[in-house]
């Protein structure tokens, strides 16, 4: 089994027609899962445990992120939206149940406890995050850091399974990859003008924008052309690109500190989608 097989193993658990046809699911946490699988293998975890740990953790992550997509209000506009909401709840619960089952069948009861504690930690972190959001006290930098921490917490449960330089570098490399994923998503959000509210661009403009611009961003419905003009005024695309570029360089420097050249190459290969995306964004920015 290599790092590219975990997502295939997860498909029987997450690809149900009923769910896919009637609601949206979050993306599979591919980079973080591959990274965990690679580090576990590097640190001598048995192949069977390595596979189960990575698969179970990815399912818990999917469960948490699926529940995050459930609308805060119970009021649905129609039958389709009501069904979508119900399926998100059920899908998240199902992914959680499969995580327990996988680890229990493998006799990994201790890991059930560790991941369960990590879930509690994630929920606590989310409460702090949402409190800052509700009070409009979130800064753009805090948004990136806290979001990356939340995305990384489950995977950090395995830190004690590692040794030496791997154990020391694992948290930074993991969070670095999480920030890269997040920044790539933020670039897509502003390019497509989808879900601008609550994004990095939103919090940046809430810090630096005029009173009128802030009101426009907070409005339930806004003129897309005006939003686009504000994003252009503050060079949001360019800022996010440079943040992603800097983050990739930081992660690559951390990876190069590892002692095994084959392992370094393996991690660079895992990060190739980020590198390709970064090059694409550079071309697009140069054309503007």
TrEMBL record:
Domain of life assignment: Bacteria
InterPro entries linked to this entry: HEPPP_synth_su1
GO biological process terms, semicolon-separated: menaquinone biosynthetic process
Pfam families given in the database record: HEPPP_synt_1
Name the record gives this protein: Heptaprenyl diphosphate synthase
Species this protein is from: Paenibacillus contaminans
